[in-house]
């Protein structure tokens, strides 16, 4: 069963908010995660990233606006509220292929509220 790209992204954010490490199952085996000057390739490297992020920061992202989709590409503007940290404004750019995240590139900047 094929999911629409926006459905996959919505599920991604639901799992992040739930601090559910099964978020990694949404990624393709050969996916790339790009951000903060690093590239993580493959599901194992991506799992290590999310294990650390979920344990250390416990992020709770919330949408700033609607998802923007064009074919397999989905953009999300979000605010991330890490446990005990400063709110961060982020833009996440997803490429979804065959109901899996093939690539996720994220851009962060400090955001004061």
What is the structure about, briefly put?
The protein is α+β, with helices and mostly antiparallel strands and 113 residues long.
Helix content: 10-25%
**CATH topology descriptor:** Nuclear Transport Factor 2, Chain: A
**What would you report as the Rg, rounded to the nearest angstrom?**
13 Å
Number of domains: 1
Distance between the termini: 41 Å
- Work out the helix count: 2
- Quaternary arrangement of the chains shown? single chain
Coarse structural class = alpha+beta
Strand content is: 35-45%
Number of separate strands: 7
Residue runs with pLDDT of under 50 for 5 or more positions: none
What is the CATH architecture descriptor?
Roll
Top CATH class:
Alpha Beta
Mean pLDDT across all residues, rounded? 90
The main sheet comes to:
7 strands, mixed
Q: Judging from the principal axes of the Cα atoms, what is the shape?
A: globular
The SSE order reads HEEHEEEEE
What can you tell me about this protein's structure?
This protein has 113 residues and is an alpha+beta fold. It has a single domain, classed as Nuclear Transport Factor 2, Chain: A (Roll), CATH 3.10.450. 24% of the residues lie in helices and 44% in strands. It has 2 helices and 7 strands. Strands 1, 2, 3, 4, 5, 6 and 7 form a 7-stranded mixed β-sheet that branches.
């Amino acid at each position: 069963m094929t999911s629409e790209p926006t459905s996959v992204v919505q599920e991604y954010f639901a799992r992040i908010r739930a601090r559910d490490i099964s978020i990694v199952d949404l990624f393709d085996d050969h996916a790339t995660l790009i951000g903060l000057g690093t590239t993580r390739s493959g599901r194992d490297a991506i799992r290590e990233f999310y294990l650390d992020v979920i344990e250390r920061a416990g992020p709770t992202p919330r949408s700033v606006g609607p998802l923007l989709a064009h074919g397999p590409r989905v953009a999300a503007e979000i605010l991330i509220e890490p446990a005990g940290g400063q709110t961060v404004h982020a833009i996440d750019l997803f490429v979804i292929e065959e109901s899996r995240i093939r690539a996720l590139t994220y851009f962060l900047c400090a955001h004061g509220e």
